[in-house]
Design a protein that fits this description.
It contains 9 helices and no strands. By secondary structure, it is an all-alpha fold.
Length: 202
């Protein structure tokens, strides 16, 4: 009997090899670590982890910058969970047109699978709803967002692995906090220089 509209089997539920299961667990922990150490926010941590692990098309800096727009429920709007949004972007990167299919319809199916699995686990995709009961306790709020970051990474990784049908999967070491902070400092410096240049050439 189908329990609800999100209960159908999907690539998230595919049986993986012990090797792949170990990779999924490692990626989950890597993303949680990037968030927990405050090196990256939720969506950034998910995207950097998956892009790096599966040889994505983004540089580290691009993955961070793209993920930054989704963080904190899309820029503190309290809308979609940033971790889920980062997972969706990552799944699209690895299942979209030119990767595994001739059209992006396949990527949309994979995105729905991720959405439905996340809803099965957490009942909603809304950041505001997910954090309502912890919004006045910063420690619990942070712990929950760490967990959501790890879970979104895990679910997305399962889809990517199942869709690619990799037999030998390796994941690279997560970025060190110092590396990420250095890239962010570089971004800030570049933006300041651009602003100064624009002001000087008005």
């Amino acid at each position: 009997m189908k329990l609800n509209k999100y209960s159908e089997a999907s690539p998230v539920d595919a049986e993986l090899s012990p090797e792949a299961e170990a990779v999924v667990e490692r990626l989950k922990l890597q993303a949680e670590n990037l968030f927990e150490t405050r090196a990256l926010l939720c969506a950034e941590a998910v995207m950097v982890t998956l892009n790096e692990a599966f040889d994505g098309s983004l540089s580290e800096e691009e993955a961070i910058n793209l993920g930054s727009t989704f963080c904190m429920g899309v820029g503190t709007a309290g809308c979609m969970c940033g971790a889920l949004a980062g997972g969706l972007a990552s799944v699209g990167m690895f299942t979209g047109k030119g990767r595994l299919a001739d059209s992006n319809a396949h990527a949309r199916d994979c995105g729905k699978n991720l959405h439905d699995a996340f809803v099965r686990n957490h009942k909603t995709t809304c950041c505001r709803s997910l954090t309502r009961h912890v919004k006045n306790d910063s420690a619990k709020h942070f712990a929950q967002c760490t967990m959501l970051t790890g879970n979104a990474t895990e679910l997305a990784a399962r889809i990517i692995i199942a869709e690619r049908q990799d037999t030998h999967i390796t994941s690279r070491k997560a970025l060190a906090k110092g590396h990420v902070l250095a890239m962010r400092a570089g971004n800030v410096l570049r933006n300041v220089c651009k602003s100064v240049w624009r002001l000087a050439h008005r």
